Amino acid sequence: MLEGRKLALIGVGTMGRTLARGLITSGAAEAKNLCGSVAHAERAAERAAEVGIEVGADNGAAAREAEVIVLCVKPKGAGGVVCELAAEGALDHDPLLVSIAAGVRTETLEDAAGRTLRVVRAMPNTPCRIGQGMSVLSGGRHATDDDLAVAEALMRPLGRVLRLDEEHMDAVTGLSASGPAFIYVIIEALAEGGVMVGLPRRVATELAAQTVQGAARMVIETGRHPASLKDDVTTPAGCTVSALLALEDGKLRSVLARGVQEAARSAASLGRSGERQ
What we know:
- This protein is of the alpha/beta class.
- Helices cover about 55% and strands about 15% of the residues.
- It contains twelve helices and eight strands.
- An eight-stranded mixed beta sheet has the order 3-2-1-4-5-6-7-8, with helices on both faces.
- Helix 4 (about 75-85) runs parallel beside helix 5 (about 105-115) and helix 7 crosses helix 12.
- The longest helix is centred in the last third of the chain and has 22 residues, at about 200-220.
- The model has no long low-confidence stretch (mean pLDDT about 95).
């Protein structure tokens, strides 16, 4: 879907660099067909050297020839950038816009353009940096099935991809985008428990991290419900069921669920801050 297409990354920051590297390394796109932009000219050469693509400080110049524009800017600036691109005529050739700005609705970006604009909203997470990410896509009012397929081809080198209606995107942000931070806390806590019972810290951290990774892959690869897999570990009168009761006493399940709820609420407010006033 991306072969030969010109792609522009507006904002070659952490996610922009991750996307560029993933596309080039996987062979999904050639470096010669990618370009990018940064807000500060002094960073352009550094970012270009890091990812091996042309990078400048002019958003309009980067977008003007691109068939696919990937908006990798902070939520509060997303609408303003699209407005500027439209004012400079950088959207006159009817490109597809893929936005990874958390919380910013496709309608906000369409309105900022002041014209018919095909927008796909994407929500990736940080494990995309190692090709183990989770990205969710939703299309705007004018996006076609082909546009979603292009966006999927764009994100697939970074990990798994799903499509959902946009009404779910703030919840997606709260779960899969914020979720890695929750898991890091869990890994840290498990490792601390290991240290408490005598393990060296390095060993405890490795055991905890590999245990989390293995358990996650069991859920994905077996397709079984987590509760069912949990039952495999909790033998009658065993040590695991005793420990699970202690975790329930600490309301671990409720605290994690509430964390997702709060992150989703916060994501929705990020979107409102990015709307044009």
